[in-house]
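Late entry, written up from scratch paper. The run itself happened at the end of the previous shift, but nothing got recorded in the book at the time, so transcribing now.
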Amino acid sequence: MDAKQWLGLQPTHNPNRWFLPVVPGISTGGGFLFGGCGLGAAIAALEATTGRPVVWATAQYLSFARPGSIMDIDVVVAVAGKQTTQARAVGHVGGTEILTVNAALGQREFPESGQWVPFPEVPAPGDCPAREARWNVGDSILSRLDQRWALTPAPMEGAATSPVPGRCAVWTRLPELLTMSAPALAVLGDYVPLGLGATLEHDVTSNSLDNTLRVARVVETEWVLVDISVETVQQGFGHGHVYLWSEDGTLMATASQSALVRLFTADKAGAYRPATPS
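Output as recorded:
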């Protein structure tokens, strides 16, 4: 199963229009489309329409798409050069715009390459404790993810302890997914809110306002280390970034994000205050 199939993205007779049935498996526990799934679907549509791989893509989240709705994704190619395409995708449900994605796509030969960010020292996925969700995950994207705490701000048995505040990491795999790709990494890049929950003393929930994915080198890997750093929280908004690592230490992509932060109240069915950061 590739990312388009995992997300449920479907083509139409128009090569520039796609549609995404919004189902619980790509939605949050709060009952709306998970932002990373929206960005992932837009990237998949952009790549398929242009025939080029994404270099970076940034999403602005404008409204909520609820399970049972259909989000149409319209791709507009602004500039198509010899090596690079600049394009955008707009996701909407009826007349309501859900997200807007701007992107650059392309691939070039260049004599040098490298990565200069150190891979964190964390236990292997099989040695790390499972991440527990704060509510019933049976009707959300969390039911389709396997996540293990690899790095935590406070000591936790089986995980490494972060040497700096504001940093945590979870090993994550998507058991149904057979191939790694930029759309799949977009799903996993939408995790600054997890870092906010692990960092702040209050129990909080967060809504993503945006997400930018910058793709380096995608390699096949079963597990992805979602390495999260929260940089600041001010006036009810949090900002941070995510490094997305393969098991062999390849930096596949980076993501950056801002989120609106709220105090959490257990008013959803099956909700509970978690014993571990979430």
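Residues 268-278 have pLDDT under 50 and may be disordered.
(Scratch paper discarded after transcription.)
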